[in-house]
Amino acid sequence: MRRRARDLTERARERIRAAREHDPHAWHHYDGEHVLVPVDRDEADPDDEADPDDGADTAHHAAGSTRPPPSSPAAGAP
Fold first, then answer.
1. Where do the segments described as Disordered lie (predicted)?
2. In sequence order, what are the residues at sequence separation of 6 or more whose Cβ sits closer than 8 angstroms to the Cβ of residue 21?
3. Is-contact 39 33, C-beta < 8 A?
4. What percent of the chain has pLDDT over 70?
């Protein structure tokens, strides 16, 4: 009975290992020896990242307004 439990445990561990290696949604990539390999940031699309100079959320500060932005929970918001 212990041998069967050991066999089942080994098969389950093997399935978990295989699933972990082939997970397309994993946060980290692993090579064949399960060593963490950093993701190359050069592959990222620069258009996907927000431009900090857009100023969309700071437009009310640039105009010198003292009123809170629209839909703000602060008193006096439009």
1. 1-78
2. 30, 34
3. no
4. 42
pLDDT digits (tens, 9 = 90+) for 36-45: 555 555 555 6
* 12-23 pLDDT tens trace: 999 998 888 877
User: Hey, how many other C-beta atoms are within 10 angstroms of the C-beta on 33?
Assistant: 5
Looking at the whole model, is its pTM more than 0.90? no
Is 44 a domain residue? Answer: no
Tokens standing for 56? 């969309």
Question: How many separate domains does the chain show?
Answer: 1
Does a structural domain hold residue 8?
yes
Q: How far apart are CA 7 and CA 5, in angstroms?
A: 5
Q: What is the DSSP letter of 74?
A: S
